[in-house]
Amino acid sequence: MTDMLPVVVVQGGAGFVPRQRSEASTSGVCAAARAAYAILQGGGSSMDAVLEAVTNLENNPVFNAGCGSVLNVKGDIEMDAIVMDGKTLGSGAVSAVRNIANPVQLARLVMEKTSHACLTAEGASKFARDMGIPEVPQESLITEYSRMRWKDNLEPDANPVQCQMGKMGTVGAVAVDREGNTACATSTGGMLNKMEGRVGDTPMIGSGSYADNKVGAVSITGHGEAIMKVALARLIMFHMEQGQSVEAASDLGLAYMKSRVDGLGGVVTVDPQGHWAARFSSLQMAWAAAQKDTLHHGLYCGEHFTQSID
Amino acid sequence: MTDMLPVVVVQGGAGFVPRQRSEASTSGVCAAARAAYAILQGGGSSMDAVLEAVTNLENNPVFNAGCGSVLNVKGDIEMDAIVMDGKTLGSGAVSAVRNIANPVQLARLVMEKTSHACLTAEGASKFARDMGIPEVPQESLITEYSRMRWKDNLEPDANPVQCQMGKMGTVGAVAVDREGNTACATSTGGMLNKMEGRVGDTPMIGSGSYADNKVGAVSITGHGEAIMKVALARLIMFHMEQGQSVEAASDLGLAYMKSRVDGLGGVVTVDPQGHWAARFSSLQMAWAAAQKDTLHHGLYCGEHFTQSID
């Protein structure tokens, strides 16, 4: 069974990816999966791998996390991120944090250097300073595209739903390393034109993320408020505990969210044996997976391309 | 079955209640349960009832929520609160909020007046101002006892574990109204001497609270970081979905948290038929329940006193 290990699966957000951005989204998740897979192949831990993948996506302006995050109603960037270690069930998260390049790395420091699981807003910034993490100007995180979409949504004839569509959700990764340890990491700029201080599902353990070596790991993307209503990450894990495959458990969770609270989203899922799935109920989700020297990726429902990793 | 309705169950925090404070804790939860029960008897909703109970406990300086909250490492009060409506699965929460008397009422406004489920820190304060909620001086929330314990814990020979014992956890309530609608509310000052910006399990849906008309409602107290690791609220609900009684599901959840992550806590639980439980793995938990004109209450394991409600 364990000859399937190691594996990493990456998601770049569920929703609608405009055509002119779809190629960059695909190449972004593929690059993140490759970088994380190199760590696993070198004997690195699943936690190191998901950190590498999500840092990669945060640094890529195409995605709604780190640089490229959507703007809140005031035109500012406030970000949420989490990591969870399936071996200990320990986690670290930050919410509504500003002026740092890589919230997911700060989340890991919360897990490793404090007795807490989540720090928010100015408290998270203070901790970042104490840890020697450089403050970056907000301008360095804002892309032209983000500012354009924010402005569009302030127009009197704006269609907030349509504005929301262009860039939804989060970025995230799940992995299993050679030892069978699972981990997940998720990071986001949240919802376009959100209120100041809005916290979504991402930093909430059991909603946007969960990892447990006895069951597997998941990272969720989609409409945060819907994901929270059904605590989707934990729900998918329960289906796996009851014997469902990674694919069936993911689909059952997403179908429940659709039928119960009319919410759409996507998920990447692994089990401790290295089985993996990338599933979504939204129109698209950029995803990539790396296992056995093969890179898998897709964007639309049913798409599954492969290429070899040298 | 529904002749058991309505019911409300209240908890005032798990942990160790010093002898000189045990009487006030008991009378506090009993008063909160009575006030909430009067609302249910008058035909009020379960949401109104849990709000009444938790507001009552926030206003009571004996409990670690609202006035009487523990102080963080800087000597400030930052509070977390949540409400959840079992009919819609909608919820509202605030985290690390300062200078308001009743965080649970602000949490309800987040649910009812925004499209979000959680607002944090300064964003939550701004929303409170927009809603016309008066800002109160921090001094009005700090009790002599809280300040004394904070100072004790700064002493060079302080025993942080012992300091933590005196006042742990949260306050919370669950209820079912005549229509069979479930609701929960939880509020806390968090952990003594916590870092600035620390967020615990309370505002995290599925960790400290959950309500679903198809299953029931729970409000959790105890060591926040342990509760989050196992997403305890959702776990107890899963046991109920699988046919366990409110009591058995609560005990199974608490036992799992003890065995898996060595965490202690307590819970109040209802199902939609009006069955209820108040269970804890800590030494004590002040609790009270009101149903069929009878008030039930207890503090130590196995205690169950009753008196009639006129």
UniProtKB/TrEMBL annotation, chains A, B:
UniProt-annotated site: Cleavage, residues: G169, T170
Entry EC no(s): 3.4.19.5, 3.5.1.1
Superkingdom of source: Eukaryota
GO biological process: L-asparagine catabolic process via L-aspartate; proteolysis
InterPro entries listed in its UniProt record: ASRGL1_meta, Ntn_hydrolases_N, Peptidase_T2
Active site: residue positions: T170
Keyword Metal-binding: no
Protein name listed in UniProt: Isoaspartyl peptidase/L-asparaginase
Species per Swiss-Prot/TrEMBL record: Mastacembelus armatus
